[in-house]
Amino acid sequence: MNIFLRELRANIKSLLIWSFIVIVFNLVGFLKFSAYYNNPQMLAILDSLPPAMLSAFSMSAFNLTTVAGFYGIMATYFGLILSIAAAMWGSGVISKEERDKTVEFSLTLPVTRARLITAKTAAMVVDCLILLLITWGITLVSAQQYHPDGEFYRFVTIGMLAFLIEQMIFLALGIFLGCAVKKHKQAGSIAVWLLLGTYFLSILVGLNKDLDFLKYLTPFKYFDAAQLLHESRLEMPFVLLSVAIIAACMAAAYASYAKRDLYI
Amino acid sequence: MNIYLHEFKTKLRSVLIWSASIATLLFVFISIYSGFAKQSALLQQAMANFPRELLIAFGMENMDWSNVLGYFALVFLFCQICLAIQAANYGFGLVSIEESEWTADFLLAKPISRAKIMTSKVLAALTGLTITNIVVWVSSFICLAAFASGQDYPVNSLVVLLLSIIVFQLVFLSVGMVISLLVRRVRSVTPFSMGLVFGLYLLNAFGGMIGQTSLEIVSPFKHFDPYYIIKHTAWDLPLVLISVTVIVISVAASYLLYARRNIPSAV
Question: Which of residues 215-254 of B touch A (CB under 8 A)?
Fold first, then answer.
């Protein structure tokens, strides 16, 4: 419990910075939306654009003149921000002990290594949830001025669930890297590579229909915002795949950290 | 000279990895161009029918899909993200790494001024960035020759676009440097550079899509918008000047700050 509280306190500054970023993007986004709100001309233009073009800018299948459609576009970017935060936190929370030379101290505490990871993971999960709730709250507040309907609320709720899964995937990946990568400095940079790689891959898949099979490799494609909007349900195979990835990463993290050589 | 060589050697591996990754990125994206070519012809037609104000509102007034460079501009944006992260990493780590690894007191005890240390380090980072820059030039030309299916494209525009890389890298290098000197301690470089680069990228992505310009005017991704450069075969000069000013101020401030910085030591 002490470790859990200690980690929460240590991460407050980072949490505040990420919350600030999320809030700024939300405000900028909804400010821009005022140009689209109930503007039929915009819709006519969007209809005449070819699909690959739209998906390259993640604008396909949304009616931009409604607040739900507009939020569909922003959802991709919010997913990206929340995933970056989760990956940074996950890879940092374990590896920072070796970086700051405090690892001998924490491992001489009378707790097992497994409990150490559990406490640290729990603290980061809580931070991810707080960031998600802040995103949720500010979205609902900003949307109020555009009189959102039931469709919007359903979409935001299910969208948040999708964000949560993305966050947990990248958090688990980060924690796994922090536990398993030999050089503690590399944990963070490998996490960055994974983020960039999967983000670019998700764009690549959008550009070309023939590459559709690659979407299993990038969590950014597991939950398509357009589908969330129109069918308001998560696709079961991808939920299971996500859970499997998270479970595998955490299991590997516990297993590798139990045997880890410390570099001090 | 010793510091320069030492710095360069420690960076070499990272430079090679970044260069190889960016070259791969260009290769993969440009290799699927032929599937996109038909769509881009449709798009060009569709855009010809739009009123200009609406194209501006969509941030699309600069897009030109009549040849392969329109697609290349799209790809180049992702290239820019990578280049920016690399440059920001080097900038944030440049002098802060000595403090986080407790080697700063050793380095500063050498019989050379702090300004000279700084200059050597900046030059070493710049050499690394230039190697990456050259790799991007070479792989761009090769990929376009290989996958553009024999199409002609205005080489001038491409050259002007690729020339912008060096200024773009300098912005992130110098901003990273000055921020690392403004804060008390940089524990780890990655969160800083990710925050800076993705913050500015998303700001521009949000802004470019909809409505009139506002906050995104501060983003180098806006200053070096590949679509604008390709269409006009020129840089958006007033905006580029913002970038240049940022570079000059950051570099000057970095030298001043480093000259009077308190250095923590291990003992």
Answer: 215
The verdict on ipTM greater than 0.90 is no
Is the dihedral angle over the CA atoms A87, A89, A95, A100 positive or is it negative? positive
Contact status of B82 with chain A (Cβ, < 8 Å) = yes
CA distance B158 to B149: 17
Among A176, A162, A164, A161, CA closest to A245:
A176
- What does the H/E/C string look like for A114-127? HHHHHHHHHHHHHH
A195 residue type, one letter = L
- CA angle centred on A13, ends B194 and A8, rounded to 5°: 110
Q: Which amino acid is at A116?
A: L
pLDDT per position as a tens digit, B185-232: 888 888 889 989 988 988 887 766 555 566 778 899 989 989 889 888
Q: Which residues of B touch A100 (CB under 8 A)?
A: 187
| Length of chain B, in residues | 267
Whether B199 and chain A come into contact, CB under 8 Å, resolves to: yes
Q: Is the dihedral of CA A69, A74, A76, A78 positive or negative?
A: negative
- Of the candidates A108, A247, A231, A213, which has an alpha carbon nearest to the alpha carbon of residue A159? A231
SS3 at position A111 = coil
Q: What is d(CA A32, CA B72) in angstroms, rounded to the nearest whole number?
A: 27
- Read off the pTM: 0.88
Decide if B266 contacts B107 (C-beta within 8 A).
no
In this complex, is the C-beta atom of B5 within 8 Å of any C-beta atom belonging to chain A?
Answer: no
pLDDT of A58 above 70: no
Residue A136 falls in which region: left (phi positive, over 0), alpha (psi -120 to 50) or beta: alpha
What's the DSSP call for residue B14? H
For A149, list phi and psi in degrees, rounded to 5. Answer: -100, -175
CA distance A169 to A121: 12
